[in-house]
Design goal:
8-stranded mixed sheet; ThiF/MoeB/HesA; Rossmann fold; nucleus; alpha/beta; two-stranded antiparallel sheet; 15 helices
């Protein structure tokens, strides 16, 4: 057997922590931040990403650069001119090509140590094939999907005990939802004596999306409700309801009245503190009526960046992940986490 070239041979040598020398060198800075064990868990993880639009693009960049083991991407669509704004894996000449055919080499170039597998046949998302696929991965993330589809995917992930993330943007609004089952992580122990360990192992019990959406807000004080700013959340939930009714996103000012009616009914049914919110502001509804179907690159970058980082947190188990619904408002540049139907 012939000897490996020097550069290939060195990359296969194992360090004392089980990583190759190339991995140890590439990931040295982040291992100092979150530790070798967390890096090993990322390196051993297979992540399934469903749909490649702006939010997924940013999340994938963060995860691949951080050194996950394998990325499986499913998307059967072709590149459109609209994809060029927030999809930095695409170029003008890619319009009309399969998204994954255009993006695969560019994703791989971010980090040659990560295995990238692409599936351009969307039939794999049908029941039997989907279950087979989910059994082979460690975590599932789907972006820019409809509510019914998200609930179905979450249910399959629950069946096979796979952590589930969802995310997306609607114009200037964005969200992240996660169901991490019973998730163990290290949390800061502020009550610990001076010389004792500063972190303790903690478990958080998450809820599936269909349970989270039945959350009632009546237990929150006026101050707590103000801090969460639930108007943005209910605007997103109204978009989901509109999409479920019409099989499309709102994209015209003529949709404003219906969206407003849906949003305000959701607020009423959820028993939100009436001193804080009795209706979603008309200006917010008017904005999403015409922009929800469009992607804005800065919003995708923020939401997708947070999505990728939170997935890495969940894999590493070193920090507190989102619990369990994050919403972002590009109108103000602010975001909040809503704890929905979690114990």
């Amino acid at each position: 057997m012939s000897a490996l070239p020097a550069n290939d041979a060195s990359s296969t040598l194992q360090t004392s922590n089980g990583l190759t020398e190339e991995e140890a060198s590439r990931y040295d800075r982040q291992m100092r931040l979150w530790g070798i064990e967390a890096q090993q868990r990322m390196r051993n993880a297979t992540i399934l990403m469903i749909r490649l639009r702006g939010v997924a693009t940013e999340a994938i960049k963060n995860m691949v650069l951080a050194g996950i083991g394998k990325l499986v991407i499913v998307d059967g669509d072709e590149v459109t001119e609209e994809d060029l704004g927030a999809g930095f894996f695409f170029r003008d000449e890619d319009v009309g090509k399969k998204r994954l055919d255009a993006a695969k080499v560019r994703i791989e170039s971010l980090n040659p140590l990560v295995t990238v597998e692409t599936v351009s046949d969307s039939s794999i998302l049908e029941d039997g094939a989907l279950e087979t696929l989910i059994r082979t991965v460690d975590l599932v993330c789907v972006t820019d999907w409809d509510r019914v589809g998200l609930i179905r995917l979450n249910e399959v992930c629950r069946r096979y005990k796979k952590p589930f993330y969802a995310g997306g943007t609607y114009g200037l609004l964005g969200y992240i939802f996660c169901d991490l089952l019973d998730h163990e992580y290290l949390a800061p122990d502020r009550s610990a004596p001076k010389d004792a360990p500063k972190s303790i192992k903690t478990t958080a019990a998450y809820s599936p999306l269909d349970v989270a959406l039945r959350h009632k807000w009546g237990g929150l004080t006026k101050r707590q409700t103000k801090e969460i700013n639930p108007a943005v959340l209910f605007a997103i939930l109204a978009i989901w309801q509109f999409q479920s009714l019409h099989n499309e996103l709102p994209n015209d000012s003529g949709h404003t009245n219906e969206l407003e009616s849906i949003a305000n009914l959701l607020v009423s049914e959820a028993d939100v503190n009436k001193q804080v919110l009795t209706h979603v502001p008309r200006t917010l509804i008017e904005s999403i009526s015409t922009t929800a179907a469009h992607e804005f690159s800065p919003v995708c970058a923020i939401v997708g960046g947070m999505l990728g980082q939170d997935i890495l947190k969940a894999l590493g188990g070193r920090e507190v992940p989102i619990a369990n619904f994050f919403v972002f408002d590009g109108n103000t540049g602010g975001g909040t986490v809503c704890r929905m139907n979690m114990p």
